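Researcher: Quick sanity check before group meeting.
Model: Go ahead. Protein one:
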Amino acid sequence: MDYQTILTEDKDGVATVTFNRPDRMNAYTARLGLEVRHAIVTFDRREDVRAIVVTGAGRAFCAGADLAAGADTFSGGGGGGSRGGVMTDRSADELRIDDRREYWEMNTPIIAAINGHAIGVGLTMPMQWDIRVAAEEAKLAFAFSRRGVIPELSANWIVPRIVGVSRGLELLMTGRTFSGREAAEMGLVSEALPADQVLARALDLARDIAENVAPVSAGIVKRLVYSNLAEPDRPAAQRREGALFGWTTGQPDSREGPMAFLEKRSPQWRLSKNADFPEEVFAEGAPGAQPSRAE
């Protein structure tokens, strides 16, 4: 795909997606949103890609919606989850991909390397992903209420679950600016580092996952955590977890992991993150479920 607003790269199981509008501080447009989704879905479908890192070119991660349209900035936008965004672009039909899953329904870990300012949609986008590393001095803000709209991309759902209701309301309602360091202190991001170390740290995390973590195990943990955020019944969550744990113990990767550790070598995982993912057990989550076993 000949992308116009992003760059992509993949090496040794790690894919990198880079917002590439540095002259506009990587300000969001509908095309950028479509290209990012197209790239992530494409990498998620590839069995050889084990982790995805998203970052920004230049000194910003993403400075929010491109306000060049002035009063018409938000016209025709909204409501589309991770497929929508704040604006529309009907000229990019080649980027529309037949995949209705949200990012948290994908089996590949997605890491945000927030290397600089992340404002508005520049912050709600990485809130949909799994691990976030931020620059200490970066300016972050859910600035929507200060632009006459509201936070989107399910930020009103996930942010209070991460930082608590009172803190979440403060951040989302006021739209105030805070630093990457403060974001780490409140748990909104995993850690904050000097800006020039952020991408390297995110890539280190991604390479560790790619080299050492069973791909199906990573996918199951990711999907379980997100599904459990909406599961009020702890015994039900435990039954699903137990069924999935039981499934993993019958797979070849549960034998490869201990042997690789004992033999002091890199693991050679046999299961694929998508082709071998136990969707039937995940959906049922019932004790004693007996899915087919990968050979």
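Researcher: Fine. The other one?
Model: Protein two, sequence then structure:
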Amino acid sequence: MQKPIMVAGFKVTLLFDGLHDDELSTICHLSGSEAAADARGRYGRDKITIPVNCFLLEKDGKRSLVDCGAGTGWGSGYGRMREELASLGITPESIDDVLITHLHGDHALGLLEDGCAYFPKARIVLSDKEWAFYRNSNKIDDVAEGKKGAFDVAAKIAAAYGDRVLAAPAGMVGDGVELIPLPGHTHGHSGFLIGTREDGLLLWGDVMHLPELQASDPEVSIIYDLYPEQAAETRKTALRDCLEAGFIIGGGHLGCFMRAEWNDSACRLVPIL
């Protein structure tokens, strides 16, 4: 477990849930197959292996999570976030809020255990656009095969948590926590800004999966982006904002806390610890 950081009075701990392995064919590019092949070559590995992260926020006796991993929903390779919480002496009952960036299984299935609420007292907070889209069965046919899983995740969360789900618009969702729309990866994909727009931490979910490629070339995509062009524009905007404001960045698939910086006319993400 990495050393926590302090941001605007919050103690923020990165929690590791597991490793996600995938084929190189997962890497795409908006410019087409040749650019995708070039990106795969630059990646320089035989397969994709990326961490799955969650974040613990602690302030004034309140505990929140940003995302909660896959729990037992994706098999034994995931769910380590629960072990890391236990090692800190933190029980599921002591979590007040779980803030969800989007409804993919590796970010939201950790809310569940055998169809029931794993966090029995928590409020679940996510984008109203994300919730409305994936709770609308009429939208299922609009989504390509292989990208429909979030509809099932949403239905299970609704059954387990009921009126403890808060579908929120962009803006403040707690003391010092702002929901920031970052659409493209999913319909209502969002991040959470901890602190202020002058000096904060942006927990940006899945804006990037492969920072070594996507920071310098935001048009590198992955097959799981629901709207690839919109996701690329979101990456460009998020990088610009992080460069201008100096935000610390935490991501669902970044190895550590990072900052964006310019290097030889290209952007890159560099660890802060």
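Researcher: One line on it for the slide.
Model: The chain has seven helices and 18 strands.
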